Each structure stands twice: as C-alpha cells, then as structure tokens.
C-alpha cells in the first residue's frame, strides 16, 4: 500500500495493528506516522529484528551513527537496523503519544492517548547508549534537552 507522502509500505503483517507510514520527520530523519486514527491504549504494532547478546549490541552501538537497538534483558537485545517494520522509525519525544512495551520478548508500541491520522508516533526512549550526549530535537514543552 502507498503511504501518505512517505515511503512505500508493503501489505502490513498481522502484528502491525494500525497502518503506519514512514516519512520525513521534523524531529529526526524519518519518522513513523499514523496512517489512520489510533484510539488510546490500543496496540499500534511491533518491531522485529535480529536477536543479539547485550554485549554484541553495545559493540554495535559504538559502530553506528544511528542506534536501533532495544535491550530486552541483562543478556538479550534486539537490533532493528535491518528491520522492514515501520515502527523502527519511531522517534523520541519528551512528551510522547505512545509507549514501548517489552512483552514476551517482543517490542510492542501502544498509544498513550488518541493519535490522529497524520500525526508522528513518538515514544520516550528512556535510558540510551547516548548517555546524555545526543541533543534532543523533539521540541516538546519541557524537553529535557538530551538523550
């Protein structure tokens, strides 16, 4: 299916509950945008990637400009850098409209409030490998300024 001005998206997999487009973001690079309205507290979708050890994930994080890794536990992480899932483009916001939830080894995204069609889907990244050195560009009121 075609996006609303973004990159082309293939038919969505069953774990992607709402249509999401990838397009240019005012926050950073590409972003994940709701292609249809998402009600509050509903699952938006998931992101799938390569399972790696946390040690390997931390090595990869030092070698990449864009880090797309989520640590699931003290031993296991998932690297999304080669994922085709549109949710991999979810940007950080200090006032997000969605949350990332780790459930049974899956990385899932849920709406915190209603998300209008065309709105960028954002989450609070929380602790990152950037250790406060990466400027935050979310522009939200009360932005903490760094990731």
Order of adjacent strands in the largest pleated sheet: 3-9-8
What's the CATH first level of the largest domain?
Mainly Beta
CATH level 4 superfamily of the largest domain? SET domain
> Mean pLDDT score, rounded?
88
Rough shape?
Answer: globular
Poorly predicted residue ranges: none
- State which percent range the strand residues make up: 25-35%
- As for the CATH topology of the largest domain, it is Beta-clip-like
Structural class: mainly beta
Largest sheet properties: 3 strands, antiparallel
Q: What is the C-alpha radius of gyration, as a whole number of Å? A: 15 Å
Number of helices: 1
What does this structure look like?
With 147 residues, this protein is mostly beta strands. The protein folds into two domains: 1-48 and 83-123, SET domain (Beta-clip-like, Beta Complex); 49-82, no CATH class. The chain has one helix and ten strands. It is globular, with a radius of gyration of 15 Å. The model has no long low-confidence stretch (mean pLDDT 88).
